[in-house]
Amino acid sequence: LSSNPSARRHKFWETQPVGQFRDAGDASLSDGAIEPPTPLSEVRADPYPLPSAFEWFTCDLDDDSLLSDLYSLLAHNYVEDDENMFRFNYSPAFLRWALRPPSFFRSWHIGVRAKESKKLVAFISGVPARIRARDAVVRMAEINFLCVHKKLRSKRLAPVLIREVTRRVHQENIWQAAYTAGVVLPTPITTCRYWHRSLNPKKLIDVGFSRLGPRMTMSRTVRLYKLPDAPLTPGFRQMELRDVAAVTRLLRAYLAKFVVAPDFDEMDVEHWLLPQEDVVESYLVESPETHEVTDFCSFYTLPSSVLNNANYATLKAAYSYYNVSTKTPLQQLMNDALIVAKQKNYDVFNALDVMENESLLKELKFGPGDGQLHYYLYNYRIRNGIKPSELGLVLL
Ligand code: NHW
């Protein structure tokens, strides 16, 4: 029973307005909201009850010491790989960026702390977004950073956090959400795979992230992954504030091709894509003749702690974010992104098989990872789901 995820019972998720496994193939169900909004006056006014030793606590991320508490909770208790060799290590600057986009709600930065010690023991967050699903642009919450301290696992705290964030999202008259997870829940709209491109193969092998290929030596491996010293495309440069309008135009035209994608305006682009050291990097191609911006690529910085290794404490990883090509072939653009990531000392460049990525991953020497990433929508049905290549959304 348990080896087939769709046969497992989900005591919590079975009560929620999400696609249920038993709905698969039911032709009477249509795309769109699963249940209608309730009148705001009927949204529960009080927070859900917590076990008596704990209290709700809204994390004000302006406050450096609260930001640092959140950082440590996640650095010690957030997502690990299946073999517990690595754990995501989102930086404080990254968390501030991820949690404070245009029109964010402070009340959606939800902590749980011990009443007595005031120690932060659990967290969940949402940020507002407009996401297009087929022809409909829907106001949604993007839910992320769900975390329960290792000592408090398996006590059904996660469903309380999820119910509470749902209540606070409803209070803003928003009824849909998007989220990703490595675990299978009812029911993914699509399932993606991470691909990894070694930039510093020696370190990746030393820390156990990758293995020497069959019949490969270390020096052949280093040669295999060697990259030019500087980007190759004429006019390739970092994005600046003055480029926001041009990048927004490029990105909107490109994302229109996908079935599910964010609906970015200039404010979103300024927030999500303007470079910030060690948080997000964006580059574009400005034609040397016409000065027109024709292509764009970006990645974000998410290091992982290396657990139990004598020589290294962290892996510096770049994650492919949004890329648009109109003149420069996508593969050449991504190759330039690899080159700048190497210049900036990243150890590995990761990308999902979303959008048009699949076509260039093998050519650029990415290898498939073992983890899967499932994408979900809350209270929104997309019958039969979509393919990763139909997805134009990257969540952090
Ligand atoms: S995915 C990263 C999630 N975080 C981690 O993996 C960190 C390490 N793990 C933990 O901290 C990105 C705990 O294991 C967590 C579960 C807290 C994950 N999503 O408390 P119990 C996100 O942040 C269900 C959703 O005993 P626990 C996205 C599980 O299936 N549900 O477990 C977050 C079961 O329900 P079921 C998850 O191990 C999206 C129940 O939780 C889940 O102590 C959230 C067990 O609870 C996951 N990743 O704590 C949904 N992992 O029905 C947002 C487990 O199967 C929905 N569960 O019995 C939208 C809300 C807004 C709507 C607005 C309209």
- Spatial gap, N to C terminus: 32 Å
Query: Any idea what the radius of gyration is?
Result: 22 Å
Task: Return the average pLDDT rounded to an integer.
Answer: 97
Q: What can be said about the biggest beta sheet?
A: 14 strands, mixed
Number of domains: 2
Helix content: 10-25%
The CATH topology of the largest domain corresponds to: Aminopeptidase
Plain-language structure description:
The protein has helices spanning about 65-75, 90-100, 155-170, 200-205, 220-225, 245-255, 265-275, 330-345, 360, and strands at about 55-60, 85-90, 110-115, 120-135, 135-150, 175-180, 190-200, 235-240, 260, 280-285, 295-300, 305, 315, 315-320, 325, 350, 365-380. With about 400 residues, the chain is α+β, with helices and mostly antiparallel strands. The protein folds into 2 domains: about 5-180, Gcn5-related N-acetyltransferase (GNAT) (Aminopeptidase), CATH 3.40.630; about 190-390, Aminopeptidase, CATH 3.40.630. Strands 1, 3, 4, 5, 6, 7, 8, 9, 10, 11, 14, 15, 16 and 17 form a 14-stranded mixed sheet that branches. The protein has a 3-stranded antiparallel sheet with strand order 2-12-13, covered by helices on one side. Strand 12 and strand 13 (about 315) form a beta hairpin. It is globular. The relative contact order is 0.17. The mean pLDDT is about 95. The structure holds 2-oxopentadecyl-CoA. 2-oxopentadecyl-CoA (NHW) binds next to strand 5, helix 3 and strand 6.
